[in-house]
């Protein structure tokens, strides 16, 4: 049947019970790939009516019977089945599945084991083994009930397996239930996650009798770990991932010698219970070739320790070859390196640093830490950070290419403003991408008056930084930059080649982006509008109603140079402000310019009330109110005239009148009380 068939894929066949129904042996000599996914009612690959009835009655049957032969099968993927408890029959022919290189078993809720004992000689070509989310799995290799339980320890060798993943197997007790050891000479990556019912790694020990010349391993099967470890067990392991495993006694107590993982370059730990920072540091230090370290969801308050080392000694707190450090969700982490210890070259080889969700982290690194080879720096959700790095650290980041700082509530500046003079400025010569997002307290990249150079910066993303008024105070160079993006590819503002100018522009535009009604009441301010607002006519483009009341330190409310921003203002109320002397301060406008403008061209209602020091609306030459309908002036005892050219005291006005030819109001209702016109 189908002698040339090379691939079978059975997907989402909700009522499929078998691929073949009959009594004959089924052989597919050319089949190399078989995938069964989403076939929850599939009892077996090949079955008969009688066998199907036996399965329903006894409830135990392998997926592949001995009558199914795949001499060239290389890839087998089985996902989502709740019927069978084993995959292969014990009577499987020798040449079936012997070419298998990839096996993935996932979401098989009744599966008790993956391999039968008799298959061990047939897996010499297996390279990738993944067993995932099988809630009933007890062991990887099924027990051979015909084997004498008193026989010597069995050695299982998997000569070509390079990737082994055991993930979310809550009932897994051991690899094989009787005394055994394993060897994985080609294994490069090992992941064990969510296996709470078994010790993961333990040092292989010898019985007392070996001391006297016998080489018998004394192992109690019920107490076996998942892996007995010697220097030969994982001789070429490069990447180790351990996460959410309830029993990790020997790692937690530092009982695994350094030579057991001498080739390990990548260590990833997640949700590790019952392990102290001291033991973690000891384990990390035992890995001489460690290049990448990822730690997440753990209670450590520190990662690298250097207790007992003082002064100028060399500190082995972090592995010398470490190039990547990623820390995620460490709620107790307070520092990466203690301030009181000299860092020396501790992070000199680090290329990638990522810190996420470390709520107690107040200081990324002290100023003694240098990042001479750092290319990527990502920090997010670290809400106690007030700045990122100090000036000396920033100056060391000469090869940094990407920096992204997001969602840090308290960060005020990226580079801390220190007392050190930086005469030659700070140059981020290779920085190409900078992202600053969701930083509600950020006011500038650096508040110090230092020169900054970004000769390679091409991408700057800024979003939700409401206090960011200026990028830097000192000289700033960004020759490759073409604008600011709110998200990747979405440019904002009007770019004219000046980063500080566009940051100021965006700051002013986001102050009142859509505000229509503004009321300021009883606040201690000397001025309302920041000088930088004056440069952006659109800062209050939608404002129609403005009320200022009880602001006793205020001297004036507007300057003439910013009146264009209030093009839609219809109602203006100024009430009970003790020190207001004039409403508009004329600055920078010649008489001709004033006459060409209608400064309040949309104003319909004006109220001036309880302003004891108000002497005039403004010093000026010409004002027109084309739409003013109601003007109310109450309790303004020092008001002499509405507008005046005089810049001196009130006595300079010979015959004060409330209105003169300089004030043009087309039609209005006037209400005046308690004025003091001489």
Automatic annotation (TrEMBL):
Question: Native species of this protein?
Answer: Durio zibethinus (Durian)
- What InterPro entries is this protein classified in? At4g27190-like_LRR (IPR057135), LRR_dom_sf (IPR032675), Plant_NBS-LRR (IPR050905)
What Pfam families does the annotation carry? LRR_RPS2 (PF23247)
Domain of life of the organism in this record?
Answer: Eukaryota
Query: SUPFAM superfamilies under this entry?
Result: RNI-like
For the Disease resistance protein At4g27190-like leucine-rich repeats domain, which residue ranges apply? 83-200, 243-369, 370-469, 515-642
Question: What is this protein identified as?
Answer: Uncharacterized protein LOC111277589
Gene3D superfamilies attached to this UniProt entry: Ribonuclease Inhibitor
Any idea which UniProt keywords this protein has?
Plant defense
């Amino acid at each position: 049947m189908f002698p040339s068939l090379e691939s079978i894929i059975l997907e989402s066949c909700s009522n499929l019970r078998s691929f073949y129904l009959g009594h004959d042996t089924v052989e597919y000599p050319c089949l190399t790939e078989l995938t069964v996914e989403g076939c929850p009612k599939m009892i077996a690959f090949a079955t008969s009516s009688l066998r199907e009835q036996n399965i329903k009655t006894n409830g135990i049957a392998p997926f592949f019977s001995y009558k199914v032969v795949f001499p060239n099968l290389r890839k087998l993927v089985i996902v989502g089945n709740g019927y069978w408890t084993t995959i292969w029959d014990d009577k499987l022919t020798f040449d079936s599945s012997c070419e298998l290189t990839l096996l993935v078993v996932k979401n098989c809720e009744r599966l008790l084991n993956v391999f039968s004992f008799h298959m061990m000689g047939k897996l010499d070509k297996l390279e990738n083994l993944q067993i995932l989310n099988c809630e009933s799995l007890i062991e990887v290799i099924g027990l051979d009930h015909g084997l004498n339980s008193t026989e010597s320890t069995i050695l299982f060798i998997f000569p070509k397996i390079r990737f082994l993943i055991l993930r979310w197997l809550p009932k897994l007790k051991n690899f094989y239930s009787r005394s055994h050891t394993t060897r994985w000479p080609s294994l490069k990556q090992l992941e064990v996650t969510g296996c709470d019912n078994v010790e993961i790694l333990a040092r292989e020990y010898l019985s007392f009798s070996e001391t006297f010349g016998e080489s018998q391993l004394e192992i109690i099967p019920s107490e076996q770990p998942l892996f007995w470890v010697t220097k030969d067990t994982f001789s070429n392991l490069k990447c180790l991932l351990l996460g959410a495993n309830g029993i990790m006694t020997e790692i937690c107590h530092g009982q695994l010698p350094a030579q057991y993982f001498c080739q390990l370059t990548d260590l990833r730990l997640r949700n590790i219970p019952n392990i102290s920072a001291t033991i973690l540091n000891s384990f990390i230090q035992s890995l001489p070739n460690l290049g990448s370290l990822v730690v997440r969801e753990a209670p450590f308050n520190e990662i690298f320790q250097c207790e007992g080392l003082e002064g100028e000694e060399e500190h082995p707190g972090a592995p010398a070859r470490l190039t990547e450090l990623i820390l995620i969700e460490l709620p107790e982490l307070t520092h990466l390196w203690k301030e009181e210890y000299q860092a020396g070259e501790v992070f000199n080889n680090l290329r990638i640093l990522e810190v996420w969700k470390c709520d107690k982290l107040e200081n990324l690194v002290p100023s003694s830490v240098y990042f001479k080879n750092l290319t990527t720096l990502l920090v997010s959700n670290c809400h106690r950070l007030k700045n990122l790095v100090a000036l000396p650290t920033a100056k060391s980041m000469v090869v940094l290419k990407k920096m992204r700082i997001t969602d840090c509530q308290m960060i005020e500046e990226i580079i801390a403003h220190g007392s050190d003079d930086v005469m030659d400025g700070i140059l981020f010569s290779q920085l190409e991408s900078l992202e600053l997002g969701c930083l509600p307290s950020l006011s500038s990249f650096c508040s110090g008056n230092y020169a900054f150079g970004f000769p390679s910066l091409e991408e700057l993303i800024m979003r939700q930084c409401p206090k960011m008024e200026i990028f830097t105070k000192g000289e700033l160079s960004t020759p490759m930059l073409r604008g600011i993006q709110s998200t990747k590819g979405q440019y904002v503002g009007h770019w004219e080649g000046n980063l500080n100018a566009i940051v100021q522009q965006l700051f002013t535009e986001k102050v009142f982006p859509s505000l229509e009604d503004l009321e300021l009441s009883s606040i201690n301010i000397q001025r309302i509008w920041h000088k930088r607002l004056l440069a952006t006519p659109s800062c209050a483009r939608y404002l129609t109603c403005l009320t200022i009341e009880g602001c006793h330190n205020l001297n004036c409310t507007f300057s003439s140079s910013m009146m264009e921003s209030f093009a839609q203002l219809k109602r203006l109320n100024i009430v009970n402000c003790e020190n207001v002397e004039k409403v508009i301060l004329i600055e920078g406008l010649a008489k001709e310019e004033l006459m060409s403008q209608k400064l309040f061209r949309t104003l319909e209602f004006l109220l001036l009330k309880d302003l004891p020091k108000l002497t005039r609306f403004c010093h000026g030459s010409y004002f027109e109110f084309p739409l003013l309908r109601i003007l109310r002036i109450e309790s303004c005892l020092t008001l002499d005239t509405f507008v005046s050219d005089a810049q001196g005291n009130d006595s300079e006005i010979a015959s004060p009148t409330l209105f003169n030819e300089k004030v043009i109001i087309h039609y209005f209702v006037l209400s005046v009380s308690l004025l003091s016109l001489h």
